[in-house]
């Protein structure tokens, strides 16, 4: 059966919750057979949108982008999609880096409907801008998403669920069955985080996170009060999506901004965390300086952001470029 809706969503905690909540409230009649669910990541959005454009079939009514930090390189692709007859596009996001890009798409409304708000999570955007009368299960999931994105909840149970979902999805960022299954469980109202499989993966994830934190502490190099640690491709496979969580834990403990530079699947990723709001500013400045030379895109929030770099340079060469940039800009 031909899909009537295509949903591209970030394969992390608040992205998965966004997809589940959106389907529950707006696409339940299409679930599951008439919905094409595709998890993505902000750095990969252009490639995934390109695949959607090339394989778009007649009968698709709506494409929904959830929690995917719209970047400059996707604008022309979205404009192309907006020209397709009888197709609408919905964007729901909360990333700070999306704000200037989304303003460029405003002229395409109502073909492209944009719901952006600089709140804690994308489910919070849904709750404040689109969905009314959330039930108790859905309200709890919005709180969980907020905690996953660095917020706080008084309810210890909510914090525990957030920690579990965040770590498990982070440690297996390419496990399609796990990610898609989590979305489908939310649509059905199932507490998927209590399953035996999820608990087993959570134990593994906690152990890996502690191991990664030790590696960061062993390797950290101080440059102008910034901490820098470098990881090779094999280590990227082992620790998968835990680098962001580990870097957040590190700055809470040591109170200095940190960059984790790693090689990953024919690209380099620089994870940046800062308690004083310098992360996004750093990524924006670095991209402005090296966008063409290193093929850089960036995205994220003031305190938590990242760079994705596709270059022929080696990992040590890239690390040296980053260090010199810090010395020139921050010393």
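^ structure tokens above, recovered residues below v
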């Amino acid at each position: 059966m031909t899909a009537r809706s295509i949903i591209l969503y970030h394969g992390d905690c608040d992205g998965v919750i966004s997809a589940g909540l959106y389907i529950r409230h707006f696409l339940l009649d299409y679930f599951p057979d008439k919905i094409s669910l595709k998890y993505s990541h902000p750095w990969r959005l252009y490639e995934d949108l390109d695949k959607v454009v090339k394989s778009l079939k007649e009968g698709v009514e709506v494409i929904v982008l959830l929690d995917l930090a719209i970047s400059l390189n996707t604008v022309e692709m979205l404009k192309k999609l907006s020209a397709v007859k009888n197709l609408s596009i919905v964007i729901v996001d909360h990333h700070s880096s999306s704000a200037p890009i989304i303003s460029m798409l405003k002229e395409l409304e109502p073909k492209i409907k944009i719901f952006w708000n600089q709140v804690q999570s994308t489910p919070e955007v849904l709750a404040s801008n689109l969905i009314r009368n959330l039930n108790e299960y859905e309200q709890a999931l919005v709180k969980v998403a907020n905690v996953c994105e660095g917020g706080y909840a008084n309810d210890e149970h909510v914090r525990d669920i957030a920690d579990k979902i965040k770590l498990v999805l982070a440690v297996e960022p390419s496990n399609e069955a796990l990610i898609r299954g989590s979305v489908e469980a939310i649509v059905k109202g199932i507490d998927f985080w209590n399953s035996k499989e999820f608990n087993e993966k959570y134990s593994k994830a906690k152990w890996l996170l502690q191991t990664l934190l030790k590696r960061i502490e062993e390797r950290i190099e101080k440059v102008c009060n910034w901490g820098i640690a470098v990881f090779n491709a094999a280590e990227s496979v082992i620790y998968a999506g835990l680098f962001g969580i580990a870097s957040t834990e590190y700055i809470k403990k040591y109170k200095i901004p940190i960059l984790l530079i790693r090689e990953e699947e024919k690209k380099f990723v620089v994870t940046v965390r800062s308690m004083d709001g310098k992360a996004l500013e750093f990524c924006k400045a670095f991209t402005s300086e090296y966008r063409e030379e290193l093929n850089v895109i960036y995205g994220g929030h003031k305190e938590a952001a990242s760079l994705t770099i596709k270059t022929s340079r080696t990992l040590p060469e890239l690390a040296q470029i980053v260090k010199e940039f810090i010395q020139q800009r921050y010393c």
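The mean pLDDT is 93.
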